Amino acid sequence: MAVPSATSNPMDSPTPPGPVIPRVDSDKKEFRLLYLEPWKEITNNNTPPEIRCTLKVSSFDGPLPHPEYYALSYVWGDPKDLISITVNDGEFKCTRSLHKALTKLAQNTDSATMILWADAICIDQTNPEERAHQVGRMMRHIYKEAQEVLAFLGDPYEGVDTAIKYLLKAAQHPECHLDPTLKPCLTVGKKKRARLSAGDQELGRNLVQLFNLPWWDRVWTVQEFVLAKEVHFFCGDRVVSAGLILKAIDNIDKHVLSCCESFASAFYERFVFLRRSSSFTSSSSSSECAGTDVSVANSTVWQAFSRMRALAGNAGKCQVNHLSPGLYRSRLSSDPRDKIYGLLGLSADGLSRHVALNYDAPVEQVFEDFTLLHIEHTGGLDLLGLLGGEKTSSSLNLPSYVPDWTLSPGNTWSMDEGWMITLVDRSLFSRSYYNASRGTSPNWRRYKPAEENLKAVTVNGFVFDTISFASKERINPWENPEDCKKWAVEVETQVNATLKNKDDAEELFLRALCGNLVAKRSEPSIVKWIKQPPDGGRGKYLPLARGFWKAVVKTGSRSKGAKYSRVDWPIQLVSRGRSFIITDNGYIGWADNRCAPGDVIAILGGGAAPFVLSPVKDSTGKLSRYRVSGDAYIQGIMQGEAMDDPPGSGNIRKFDELILI
């Protein structure tokens, strides 16, 4: 979902000359803190209050501990719309959005001075070397060590009070139902007759708009949230903790997946269309527009909540930090390089130490260098699992093995952060449960083909099979049951014809359908509860999958009932954005929706899953290279069976050298 907003990054928009700013020593891990004076001390008679503050140097390595401070997280806004404040007794011009944040804090501060960190003021924007060091090396520590992060979401809108009150009530009363026919019911409003419940479109609109405020669109706010000890959101006069928002969403999810499941579509899946004006200055990212009203299509409450889930699922953890560019790729930045640089603070695994911020390097070079560095550093091909389905045209000239972080993966499902979560989860599960290359390591080297403008690498791997049938992309049964039914009938017909002579044909298909995964319980935090079925799954697992599939073939809709969530969630995980495929040798599974008959299934060194490659002929007409479509699930080779030479021998097959372009 591309929602243009006024975004920027700490490396942009140098401020005009202002007060004398104390120097910081990068070798001593020094940084500046902003001491904000409260209004009650500086207001004279009826004169409009003035923002006054002082900059002082502190250090993470000093002999004395640094003072406790609050870090601000906000959207910079229009860099030309500046307001003067007083810093160190001199004039300092800051953006209107920062001025609003400082004003709110100065109003609410008691007699004590409030100690803050705000990037636009605390980093000398006129000093490129300092900016690079503070942004690339210090910001992570600054947000991590802050007493609290204060996140300013944007200007309030009519209905923000309703949205926040509803979420607070959901957090405080987990027993309240979404379904108005069940008691007690979760409602909000002063008058009994005017109370809003989950079935009211007005409430849905208010909730969606809350999570579409500018702060949620900015790539830099991700690490500012994830690294924080605690976060409070500000919107108008409302202040609410991130913990309460997350608790509310968790409580609502539990009702959606159990007692209120039949009512979920009336609440979670209803589309809400918003329009808002963007004052963003256009950049090289095609999704960011200037001065236009933009319709936010395909926004549902589920998608809105996914923006919080995407942040909360990463907060305090290291398990997905190396895939963060994929998880937050729908967020905006004024410079495409910040799709990488703005998330380096999450790379607790040390990857960030090897990435030097270089805003003079071409965007293509930054993306390609990061991909190859990521593969070398992690020893795996997880990042290639995030290539899936990029259909939108790009202005960047990238090889197929490099994700274009300026684009959201194109597919017929909604382009929200919930979809990004699915892609990242799928890569994580591949690493946890699959071992297609049997623990081998990647060996990637840059390769210069004869064509001047072509980028390529040589990789260790081999072609295993060729795709003979590829269905349409899997249809979402929640959105289009009739088309889903047609899709299911076609798949079943093709599978039956292919596997008709196999005694275990049904079992093979059902395992492929679910990726041989099962859910332990019905909760949205799927990283914790999807696993491989115990004892082969022949007890409860396969009958559940069979019942689920029969309902899809018969009606185009998924089976109702919480028990079917045990297979529904794994099916969504393995199939979303993919097509069902059959190979020349009778293997079945799922592959990226761009695949077609004639594409090949390949095992690449370091790959937890197989990959789909599209053959490309060189200028002489010989097959010599491939384009990468994405990873795949192929029943029967996910545990390294394809590595046996000959099959079943246990002898490891030697890799060939493949060229990827």
UniProtKB/TrEMBL annotation:
<protein>
    <submittedName>
        <fullName>Heterokaryon incompatibility protein-domain-containing protein</fullName>
    </submittedName>
</protein>
<dbReference type="InterPro" id="IPR010730">
    <property type="entry name" value="HET"/>
</dbReference>
<dbReference type="InterPro" id="IPR052895">
    <property type="entry name" value="HetReg/Transcr_Mod"/>
</dbReference>
<dbReference type="Pfam" id="PF26639">
    <property type="entry name" value="Het-6_barrel"/>
</dbReference>
<feature type="region of interest" description="Disordered">
    <location>
        <begin position="1"/>
        <end position="24"/>
    </location>
</feature>
<feature type="compositionally biased region" description="Polar residues">
    <location>
        <begin position="1"/>
        <end position="12"/>
    </location>
</feature>
<dbReference type="Pfam" id="PF06985">
    <property type="entry name" value="HET"/>
</dbReference>
<feature type="domain" description="Heterokaryon incompatibility">
    <location>
        <begin position="69"/>
        <end position="224"/>
    </location>
</feature>
